[in-house]
Amino acid sequence: MSKTFTATNPATGQAVGNPITEHSFEEVSAAIAAAEKIKAKFAATTPTQRAALLNAIADSIESEKEALAQISHLETALPMARVTGEVMRTVIQIRAFAELVKTGGHLLPIIDLADPNFQPVARPDLRKSQQPLGVVSIFAASNFPLAFSVAGGDSASALAAGCPVVVKAHPSHPNTCQVVYEAVTKAITAQGLPKEIFTLVQGVNPEITHWLAKDPLITAIGFTGSGLVGKLLIKLAQERPVPIPVFAEMGSLNPVFFTPTALVEKADELAKAAMDSALLGSGQFCTKPGIIVVPNDASGDKFIAQVQSYFSEQKVGPLLNKGIATRFIEAITSISKAKGVKVLTGVNNPDGYGVTPSIFVVDWADVKNHDDLLEEHFGPTSVIIRAPFDQYLAVAKAMSGQLASAIHAGNDEKLPELVSQLTQKAGRVIWNGFPTSVSVTAAQNHGGQWPASSSHTTSVGLDSLFRFVRPVVYQNFPDNQLPAELQNANPYAIERVVNGVRSNKAIN
């Protein structure tokens, strides 16, 4: 008999939604095998066909906007405005990938024509383009039930690359995942393509993660979530007879540095903005400012006083599930006992998986007394570090890899050494802003040095597609045996680099 499980409403702690059937090992293996069988057909789709599919998926998801907002609100307790907006973010990023593949930009075709006079030796005809990796396993995130979930950025970029996707639903919002899955497969079949391009796996059994990571037909993994699970996936992937890449985005402290000049100019405004950023989404963003660095002078003292005044009145929504709430409470309890740490608290939320927001204030000299101060804690908390301004560079050097970092400085204030150091740690550096807003654009980078990410790639923006392709060079091939994007006639009429010159013209 099949096992079932039920989601829980974080606001009440009560079961919500339909019972969901858990997939067995045999079902997971069969889904992967079915995806493997059709991968060549999907990889062979033209830019126009691939773009049409992505746009159809976006349209299908958007048509379920009201239903998705309602069920995801119940399963996550996130505000209706937040989940409704997230549906549209999901749709918009899928359409952005459609525009990219329609132009052929995902293929990156480069052609160096044969040249007998090339130095130091004659050059053969070399033609390079990108090919999809194969079947990709994606793991949905807990904190973004749509934008980083079943059809979120990881899945969308893999599909855009031409890779069949087997996605593991997050058990905290399984009904949301099911509705999205049905919308995606409806679009796929309407485009005349095999539904096996996209498969959903459901369940609370932790072994499902192992089955997906270790199956020999899986060629890459995309993951957004905790360092604990991300590191497990990396370990499983490396232990395979044939290791595969794991593109894991695993969270971050995202330190924000405030200069004395910035605080003298507007400490009140910055204190409120910093706390709003730290508490956004109940502190369950991987871009939350988990470390706030202020000077140990009068300007820093004023900032902390303003934080305490504002923070004491703040109450946040419940955390996403029981596990997150339990880990948060345990971490807060432990840090509160650390030497030299002052605790600032907000308003307790007693309902469901509610918690008490907590901010910790500590001198840089005392940070070494508790390792947890420099670790990510998922929930409504942040650590304010007081440090001499002339030690900011040392503080930055002591940080591990980050998804993002920020500097608040005064007018015309220049900090080239601090900026340079932060670029060595973070994938995105912000000037006079906060890291919690991540625009989905071609220029975006959502990734950083270890342990924020497992690679130098991004999980947000158009470049995330290139995680799931690899370059292949065709040397001295007859024109009629080349992929279309490399043929002389350029049948897709896409931009190519031919002998170092960008052109969408045919080769005579």
Automatic annotation (TrEMBL):
Domain of life assignment: Bacteria
Domain Aldehyde dehydrogenase, first and last residues per copy: 3-448
InterPro entries: Ald_DH/histidinol_DH (IPR016161), Ald_DH_C (IPR016163), Ald_DH_N (IPR016162), Aldehyde_DH_dom (IPR015590), Aldehyde_DH_Superfamily (IPR050740), ALDH_KGSADH (IPR044151)
One MF term in the entry's GO annotations: oxidoreductase activity, acting on the aldehyde or oxo group of donors, NAD or NADP as acceptor
CDD domains the record matches: ALDH_KGSADH
Keywords: Oxidoreductase
Pfam families: Aldedh (PF00171)
Biased composition (Polar residues): 1-12
Region Disordered, annotated ranges: 1-20
Protein name: NADP-dependent aldehyde dehydrogenase
